[in-house]
Design a protein that fits this description.
Elements (H helix, E strand, L loop, with lengths): L16 E8 L5 E5 L13 H18 L9 H4 L16 E6 L7 E8 L9 E5 L17 H9 L22 H17 L8
Antiparallel strand pairs: 1-2, 1-4, 3-4, 3-5
Length: 202
């Protein structure tokens, strides 16, 4: 037993629907129609497979372009919950956009804004759209940082990154630093005095 539709809560807009339908004709041609009158449909054709692909893409385009309204009323409830007939539920929760399509039949693509309770109970249905996340509320004045402190932080220079050293390249400075560098000339002169001159003296 399905739940009879109830009055739409104050402030909630009626859930929207889009229906794309593939219709076959006696001469083995087919046409595609959309419940949105402004949509341009292809001409009647014998290429039924091509028209079916167009219908599926057209329904997907509507799903992508639709902005799901978080507080829209459940369209499933408005249809007396026929999509899950025999299950008694109470419509509640947020709103999602669902696509109903039976691949065994493959002729109707139905989009609808429904509640999160009805959505998982509807046959041949998958969720294709969610409401946009609400903006975060502004922080209270007591938690905001003083503007002067923010400006001061901006003036403090960030520490310089260490210079990159090529792999396999060692530093030209001796291990002992500047002191070893200053001792190096004296040591070189003493080494010259100790070195023999020319050949041996007799």
């Amino acid at each position: 037993m399905s739940t009879p539709p109830t009055e739409t809560p104050t402030g909630r807009m009626q859930g929207r629907t889009w229906t794309v339908r593939l219709t076959g004709h006696a001469d083995r041609t087919a046409t595609v129609s959309c419940s949105t009158g402004a949509c341009t449909m292809p001409a009647r054709s014998r290429d039924v497979a091509g028209l079916r692909r167009f219908a599926a893409l057209h329904a997907a385009s509507h799903a992508k372009a639709a902005r799901v309204r978080a507080y829209a009323s459940c369209q499933c409830r408005a249809a007396e919950c026929a999509a899950h007939e025999g299950m008694r539920v109470h419509c509640s929760g947020g709103t999602v956009l669902v696509l109903r399509h039976d691949p065994a039949v493959g002729r109707v693509w139905h989009l609808a804004e429904v509640c999160t309770v009805c959505a998982p109970l509807m046959t041949h249905t998958r969720v294709v759209g969610l409401p946009a996340p609400t903006a975060r509320p502004a922080a209270p004045e007591s938690l905001k940082r003083p503007e002067r402190a923010e400006r001061a932080e901006q003036r403090v220079p960030s520490p310089a990154a260490p210079a990159a050293v090529a792999v396999g390249f060692s530093s030209p400075t001796p291990a002992g630093g500047d002191d070893d560098a200053r001792r190096a000339p004296g040591q070189a002169r003493r080494a010259q005095r100790r070195s023999p001159r020319g050949g041996q003296r007799r």
